Amino acid sequence: MPSRYDPVDLKPGLAARQAATRLLAAVTESRASLDGLLDPAGGNPAFTGLGPQDRLLVRAILLSALRHLRVIDAYIDELVTSPLPEGAKALRQLLRVGAAQILFLDVPDRAAVDLAVSQANGDPRNRRFAGLVNALLRRMGREKESRLSELTATVPPFPDWFVSRIQNAYSQEADSILSMLSVPPAIDLTVKTDPAGWAERLGGTVLPTGSVRIARPAGPVTDLEGYDGGDWWVQDAAASIPAQMFSRLDGLEVADLCAAPGGKTAQLALAGARVTACDQSANRLERLKGNLSRLGLEVSTHLSRAQDFKAPEGFDGVLVDAPCSSTGTVRRHPDIPYTKGPEDITRLTQVQRALLDHAAGLVRPKGELVFSNCSLDPEEGELMVQGFLADHPSWRIKPVDASRWPGMEAAITELGEVRTHPAMLSDDDPAQAGLDGFYAVVLTQE
Ligand SMILES: C[S@@+](CC[C@H](N)C(=O)[O-])C[C@H]1O[C@@H](n2cnc3c(N)ncnc32)[C@H](O)[C@@H]1O
């Protein structure tokens, strides 16, 4: 069963609640991305104006609300005696935040209800509903033990467009994938050396990819041993796979075309490649430089669209870790099913294809081209690559050996591509289980 609690001590104040309500509306009504809203530097003032503790609370409320939004809405709709008025969006958002606290966060029910009622009374749009807010959330608190598990078992966890795409792509495994997507993930670290030693020091376990998986710490991950010394970086185990797929790196010239913030660039450099890291975003390229500097790794950087990046002498290896719908990262970014849609996937496949076509021209004869992204959708992975191969008959898939990562054989497709998803790497504790959804393939020329 998914854990119902995010590991944050919650004593939410009214300002935090108001911010959470406003930001939840921005995500679900205006499709604003949670990362953008919660960016400490350029995020929404309702968030950046809060103190550190309140920020933690707002983040926890939003993550829980979005992970369980359909269940929360179904429960609200079940408890209102007549449907909420169509225009009562502010009321729904307020109830969603209260329900997220009562159902999924470790907040005393009474405190959550009282704050919701105060918030309703302080908002002219919601004042007349204060009695309803009080009655509904109190009842939710009383009955949740019996009702919540029934609702979780019957209500699809995410919007219909998203659920049906997962069901179409993964048939048998779709239910397990969807259920894992509501579980907050552990944290994976890529370590420079000695995974077993770091696993012991940080109380984690070593995964088949060589990553170290640790429980989510109570404080910032940057406080953990080894961060300041540049001994490791945060990177989902699945995200560490594409850079490991090159058959050789030491001493070779490799271009990383969509490089920032540099997780894979760091792996390539650590393995001894001479890396040119290209990205079209100046801000993100600055972050890459900061990350690589902390890790003590040197690479060349290049600010441009990958399609405009020219290198007549070519590279031994090229990595295209393409922009994508990021549906493989919904455990960490549960806003994605609400901020993205099928039209984004169609648009992104065109960008991915343009990147792949251009990258193919940068690979030296006998060189390797690795294409990857963190989407669960075959249109951005398997099908996109089949389209590329149909139009480039001299290219082929270089199959990955299924024994490459013992214990992860299920992640290797019949054609030798890598396809990971959140129901892989099972564990008795769901919070310790799973992988990001990733697609990766090695392409070479005959
Ligand atoms: C999925 S992220 C890459 C993550 C990175 N490889 C890592 O492991 O840390 C995609 C990156 O592609 C960049 N990007 C998007 N479109 C691009 C383009 N046409 N040319 C170059 N970079 C692009 C984005 O700015 C973003 O930094």
UniProtKB/TrEMBL annotation:
Q: What is this protein called?
A: tRNA and rRNA cytosine-C5-methylase
Q: Which residues form the signal peptide?
A: none
UniProt binding sites for S-adenosyl-L-methionine: C258, A259, A260, P261, G262, G263, K264, D279, D321
- What family does the entry list? Belongs to the class I-like SAM-binding methyltransferase superfamily. RsmB/NOP family.
GO molecular function term, any single one:
RNA binding
Question: Where do the catalytic residues lie?
Answer: C374
Q: What are the residue boundaries of the SAM-dependent MTase RsmB/NOP-type domain, all occurrences included?
A: 166-446
Superkingdom, natural source? Bacteria
Question: What's the source species for this entry?
Answer: Hoeflea phototrophica (strain DSM 17068 / NCIMB 14078 / DFL-43)
Q: Which UniProt keywords apply?
A: Methyltransferase, RNA-binding, S-adenosyl-L-methionine, Transferase
Could you tell me which PANTHER family the record lists for this protein?
Answer: NOL1_NOP2_SUN FAMILY PROTEIN _ ANTITERMINATION NUSB DOMAIN-CONTAINING PROTEIN, NOP2 YEAST -RELATED NOL1/NOP2/FMU SUN DOMAIN-CONTAINING
Q: Which SUPFAM superfamilies match?
A: NusB-like (SSF48013), S-adenosyl-L-methionine-dependent methyltransferases (SSF53335)
Q: Which GO terms describe its biological process?
A: regulation of DNA-templated transcription; RNA methylation
Enzyme Commission number: 2.1.1.-
